[in-house]
Automatic annotation (TrEMBL):
One of several proteins that assist in the late maturation steps of the functional core of the 30S ribosomal subunit. Helps release RbfA from mature subunits. May play a role in the assembly of ribosomal proteins into the subunit. Circularly permuted GTPase that catalyzes slow GTP hydrolysis, GTPase activity is stimulated by the 30S ribosomal subunit. Its EC number is 3.6.1.-. This is Small ribosomal subunit biogenesis GTPase RsgA. Residues 72-222 form the EngC GTPase domain. Zn(2+) binds at residues 248, 253, 255, 261. SUPFAM superfamilies: Nucleic acid-binding proteins, P-loop containing nucleoside triphosphate hydrolases. PROSITE patterns: ENGC_GTPASE (PS50936), G_CP (PS51721). Belongs to the TRAFAC class YlqF/YawG GTPase family. RsgA subfamily. Keywords: Cytoplasm, GTP-binding, Hydrolase, Metal-binding, Nucleotide-binding, Ribosome biogenesis, RNA-binding, rRNA-binding, Zinc. Binds 1 zinc ion per subunit. Monomer. Associates with 30S ribosomal subunit, binds 16S rRNA.
Length: 294
């Protein structure tokens, strides 16, 4: 039986690429019976009814999956955050980073609209965050709409990878993709002065061939809750804490009140940024206070 990858899901149809052509497929009833939904990014086996239509017979094991947006087998998450309009939010970025780390996806941070920074203090402010994230080990790209080369720097990163582009509305995700592949002509939207965010311009998930890889343009994360993350494992999704945890006196140290905690010692020594630790504490309490789901 032929095999391929689901490139797009729309209105109950799954568009499977075998490397040469796109086959419009439906999923078999057995998937619904077992509550399995095919996802964009799935590697599948299918049966062709004719040159253009077929049925998905089998979904191969996934490396990872996101439910909102619905996509599987992701290598990279390109997290786009604007320097201004909307204002850069390290708390929201750290929330995204935790969720991405928890799904075993490599995050790439892109800070857009750098060219709109007029104030020297604002620039220093952003530079400090960039330095902190790079020290932790994250790749950070600074994107200027006036300098296409700042976007083109992503080309080698995307090659041979499946990437998902994420970030809050209005930060320039569609603009970034249009710059990477001009013939896309994705709709972009202006920021609403009332809401401080752009309108959603993307309605379905689709893998687009860009720079020798596949990039998903998605409607964005509709849920940023730590639904499947336990408080005791949260520090594992902060790389700078994960690295230090083995040096703590107590196994299972939460890095909050325990004595001889390597993380708190690093924090006091200025080796962990204060804002990262504050976000960790905030997320920890949020998870602890989470109502049980049945």
């Amino acid at each position: 039986m032929p095999q391929g990858k689901i490139m797009k899901a729309l209105s109950g149809f799954y568009y499977v690429s075998d490397g040469e052509k796109l086959i419009q497929c439906r999923s078999r009833g057995v998937f619904r019976k077992h509550k399995i939904t095919p996802l964009v990014g799935d590697n599948v086996e299918y049966q062709a009814e004719n040159e253009k239509e077929g049925y998905i017979l089998e979904i191969f094991e996934r490396k990872n999956e996101l439910i909102r947006p619905p996509i599987a087998n992701i290598d990279l998450a390109i997290l786009v955050f604007s320097a201004v309009e909307p204002e850069f939010s390290p708390a929201l970025l750290d929330r995204f980073l935790v969720l991405i780390e928890a799904h075993d996806i490599t995050p790439i941070i892109c800070i857009s609209k750098i060219d709109l920074l007029n104030d020297e203090e604002e620039k220093k402010h952003i530079d400090q965050y960039v330095e902190n994230y790079r020290k932790i080990g994250y790749d950070v790209f600074l994107i200027s709409s006036k300098k296409p080369e700042t976007v083109h720097a992503l080309f080698p990163v995307l090659k041979n990878k499946i990437s998902v582009v994420a970030g809050q509305s209005g930060v320039g995700k569609s603009s970034l993709l249009n710059c990477l592949k001009p013939d896309l002509k994705l709709k972009t939207s202006h920021i609403s002065p009332h809401l401080g965010r752009g309108k959603h311009t993307t309605r379905h998930v689709e893998l687009i061939e860009i720079a020798g890889g596949l990039v998903a343009d998605t409607p964005g994360f509709s849920s940023l809750e730590f639904i499947n993350i336990e408080a005791t494992e949260l520090s594992q999704y902060f790389p700078e804490m994960r690295e230090l945890s083995p040096n703590c006196k107590f196994r299972g140290c939460t890095h909050i009140k325990e004595p001889k905690c390597a993380v708190k010692m690093a924090l006091e020594g200025g080796k962990i940024p204060d804002f990262r630790y504050e976000h960790y504490l905030h997320f920890f309490e949020e998870i602890k206070d989470r109502k049980p789901r049945y």
